[in-house]
Design a protein that fits this description.
Layout lengths: L8 H15 L9 E6 L5 H13 L4 E6 H8 L10 E6 L4 E7 L2 E8 L3 H16 L5 H11 L7 E9 L2 E9 L3
Parallel strand pairs: 1-2
Antiparallel strand pairs: 3-4, 4-5, 6-7
Helix pairs in contact: 1-2, 4-5
């Protein structure tokens, strides 16, 4: 997957086949019905590629749900009530913004900037500020440790060690 859509059809099919087998405890002839979350801004060609990958992986029927709807239901928002609920779903490749009401999406936008781009920005910042090259795993750890949408009162830090020296990154974080 890249930017929320299939980048390599064969790998996507293999991944789906693995999940189907794992969910059905190895029964080889299982042809399940599956539900797949899709970015709200997906094109018809991209949707068809997902459907074909799922069929090739052994799915009998596919149901699609837009990712903002799935995220809102998972968060327990009142999506069926006659009032608006806003959801911001930041994934690896896409960020989904949506307002839901009466069981449907009132308006939404999907942007192909998300967690992966944040990791890249952290890598570039560390390289520029500390002249240190870190990998995506370290960038992800930094992001999840000191990243926060709501600055608070406690100080969080991450140490990135190299050649006996330590680069420290700080961020104020809200109390739990």
């Amino acid at each position: 997957m890249k930017d929320g859509v299939i980048a390599d059809f064969n790998i996507a099919e293999a991944m789906l086949r693995y999940f189907i087998r794992k969910a059905h405890a190895g029964r080889r002839l299982a042809r399940p019905r599956i539900m797949i979350g899709l970015p709200s801004g997906i094109t018809e060609v991209e949707r068809k590629a997902v459907k074909e990958a799922a069929e090739s992986a052994g799915a009998r029927e596919m149901y699609f749900i837009e990712e903002p709807t799935a995220a809102a239901i998972g968060a327990g928002l009142p999506v069926t009530e006659p009032k608006g609920s806003m959801i911001v779903d930041i994934g690896g490749g896409t960020t989904e913004f949506a307002v839901l009401s009466l069981g449907g999406i009132v308006c939404s936008i999907s942007v192909r900037v998300a967690g992966d781009k944040m990791d890249e920005a952290i890598i570039e910042y560390i390289k520029r500020k500390y002249r240190l090259l870190i990998g995506s795993t370290t960038a992800e750890a930094i992001k999840t440790t000191i990243g926060n949408a709501f600055p608070g009162h406690t100080l969080e830090s991450v140490k990135v060690a190299y050649s006996g020296e330590v680069a420290m990154l700080f961020r104020f974080k809200s109390p739990p």
